[in-house]
Amino acid sequence: MLAAYTFGDVMWTMLVFFCWILFFWLLFGIFGDLFSRHDVSGWGKAAWVILVIILPFIGIFIYLITQGHGMSERAQQRAQAQQSEVDSYVRSVAASSSPSEEIAKGKQLLESGAITQAEFDQLKANALSA
Question: Phi, psi at residue 40, to the nearest 5°?
Fold first, then answer.
């Protein structure tokens, strides 16, 4: 049976599998964008879902043609919002310990023997310079 499965058949199978994955990726991307929108009413979303389910290829292509630019803008806005949240979290965590707290922690480590005097001096210099 495997002898009848030629290289062309393998390539065709790979192409069909790739297109199948691409179709579902587009479908999930469109549904994700559609349901995260606040400017479309519930009836509008229902109409898009019905169109994409009943006529999948035509519905996907129409959505991409009419809403493609907006999809990229909304994705960029979501990415920027997530990045700003991460940045603010990092700033809050980094600013939560003052130089005196860092020096106190370093002093505890020095007294416990976990670090040497030279390491404590370096930690203290870093805390005071920040």
Answer: -110, 135
Tell me if residue 116 falls in helix, strand or coil: coil
Q: Read off the amino acid at residue 39.
A: D
What whole-number distance in Å separates Cα of residue 101 and Cα of residue 113? 18
96 or 80, which is more confident: 80
Specify burial of residue 71 (Cβ count, 10 A radius: 0-12, 13-18, 19+).
middle
Question: Measuring CA to CA, how many Å separate 64 from each of 52, 74, 99?
Answer: 11, 14, 53
Q: Would you say the C-alpha torsion 35, 41, 43, 44 has a positive or negative sign?
A: negative
pLDDT tens-digit readout, 97-108: 677 888 888 889
- Report the C-alpha gap between 70 and 28 in whole angstroms: 16
**No. of helices (H) and no. of strands (E), the chain:** 5, 0
